[in-house]
Task: structure prediction
Amino acid sequence: MKIIVLAKQVPDTNEVKIDPVKGTLIREGVPSILNPDDANALEEALALKDQYPGSVVSVVSMGPPQAKYMLRECLAMGADNAYLLSSMAFSGADTCATSTTLAAGVRKIGDFDIIFAGRQAIDGDTAQVGPQTALRLNLPSVTYVQKIREIKEKSIVVERALEDGFEVIEVETPCVLTAIKELNKPRYMTISQIEDAFKKDITVWNENDLALNPNDVGLVASPTQVHRSFTPPPKGAGEMLSGTVPEMASALVAKLNEKHVLAAH
Result:
């Protein structure tokens, strides 16, 4: 089985700050991590590799040169190959342009059975890249996959999470599946795996390697434009009530009346 995983290096959301003047993310000095949902996608690919000996897992990412560190992490977890799509021509890409580049990378890799991607990236939360990549590759896709039920010769049966349950879908392969955290728990890396990861080569491709027109990628090919990013103002401190239940209930009603939340009778 040949599996491709789409992965992204993202800023750690616990450390993200917004420039109050420019309204943009401050990335300098902010640690980067493997996008959490992509870690679940990679884990499922590696689990299938364990289940089907001889399988090959390749990870593809679009990003700046420093994304190599994230790809090393993927190799240390057990991926066989890593590809970085990196060029100034790709910068400023929205999901539309990003999917164009990723699809070109997948085509260059060639033969595959399944493409796994995370449901969404924590620095954008659009959940669009996986399905858009499937569209550009003319492949069927299933989003919000929470369980792999069965692998057949030319199809795969999965559970797709819904707000009030799940649905069972059988989809022909090759296909694109986007993973959610309920799918699995990503494995840890060992010291020996980390050492081996730094001995492996990471293939880097630019727009010329992918036979892409610079006008079809990056900012110039991105119809989406972010006008402003900002941090919502913090909420005021809450007020704790004390006393007996009737006393606290009476105090709460009085405060709600004071703020005109309840209509006085």
